[in-house]
Amino acid sequence: MDCKQVQRQHRVIMVSDFFYPNFGGVENHIYQLSQCLINLGLKVVVVTHAYGNCTGVRYLTNGLKVYYLPRLPFYQQATIPTLLGWARLLRAICVREGATLLHGHQAFSTMALEACINARSLGLKVVFTDHSLFGFADPGSIVLNKVLKAVLSDVHAVICVSHTSKENTVLRACLPPSTVSVIPNAVDASQFQPDPGATWPSDPIHDDIVLVVLCRLVYRKGVDLLSLVLPEVCNRHPNVRVIVGGDGPKRQLLEKVISDYGLQDRVVLEGPVPHERARDFMVRGHVFVNASLTEAFCMALVEAAAAGLVVVSTAVGGVPEVGWDMCVRQPRVV
């Protein structure tokens, strides 16, 4: 199918609970994918829930239209399940925009899962992308996996962001492996150029070395592990300083560790960092640290490498794939 055929056939509705002004890999992925599709001549509309005063219809770069619907989040920005509660509203949006394809993102997104079910009843093509790894034993994962199995049994295509993610999704949703595609996340490296004047310290033993952490401060991102490691690193290496970007429920844990060990001059919590400032934040340091306990891909690693930082990460989930790809092929450029 050539580009002209794609332009004639598809008007895409992206659906997820996770989108700007929230920060994260899923949000960045949806935005960047939408921009690429718009540049190809397709019409793209994003549907998500309201974020505070961000409600109604808004327009982003290149005329990307976003519907911020009045749905109530109840846990980590995921909305309360209703199944058919917003089916009529979704139908109205699809009819108004002339939608031909619905693309749901993230297995934890209630809106995405419900939209996939409702879109099939509207006769739309449905694609689903899974961005994270989930377990099999805890009650929450068991329920989610059952729901995911039901939803993905009736979609046209399933995409995962790494081979590890594919294996996880195939097992959780009981899908034939041949029906699931792997499309690794991409980063526009032109937005993450290294600082031309940056140099590695000539004397790493005595000159300051700055570690950079940029993530949501939640358990899954390894903040508990980070809180154990930072005091030891600072104790062993007096020339190391740490800047932490991001916010979340685990911020209080880091604040307590900084206070208990007297690291106020060594570790700085800078709060949320908008994606448009991520590059400027990263190039302030020398080493990017990722302590995630589970990770399907981790776009921040590719962004940090593109910005010229040395990358250190836990070898979990799809991270080894990302590391190998950076070594062999260099960071992907959209």
Notes on the structure:
The chain is α/β, with parallel strands linked by helices and 334 residues long. The protein is 35% helix and 20% strand. The protein contains eleven helices and 15 strands. Helix 4 packs parallel to helix 5 (139-152) and helix 7 runs parallel beside helix 8 (251-260). Residues 328-334 have low confidence and may be disordered. GO terms for molecular function: phosphatidylinositol N-acetylglucosaminyltransferase activity.
State the CATH class of the largest domain. Answer: Alpha Beta
Number of domains: 2
- CATH topology value of the largest domain: Rossmann fold
Largest sheet: 8 strands, mixed
Estimated radius of gyration = 21 Å
- Helices and strands, in N-to-C order? HEHEEEEEHEHEHEHEEHEHEHEHEH
Q: What is the CATH superfamily classification of the largest domain?
A: Glycogen Phosphorylase B
Helix fraction, binned, reads 25-40%
- What would the principal axes of the Cα set say about the shape? globular
Spatial arrangement of strands, main beta sheet? 3-4-2-1-7-8-9-10
Ranges where pLDDT stays below 50 over 5 or more residues in a row are 328-334
Number of helices: 11
Give me the secondary-structure category: alpha/beta
> Roughly how many Å apart are the termini?
20 Å
Q: Please report which band the strand proportion falls in: under 5%, 5-15%, 15-25%, 25-35%, 35-45% or over 45%.
A: 15-25%
Mean pLDDT, to the nearest integer, reads: 89
Counted beta strands = 15
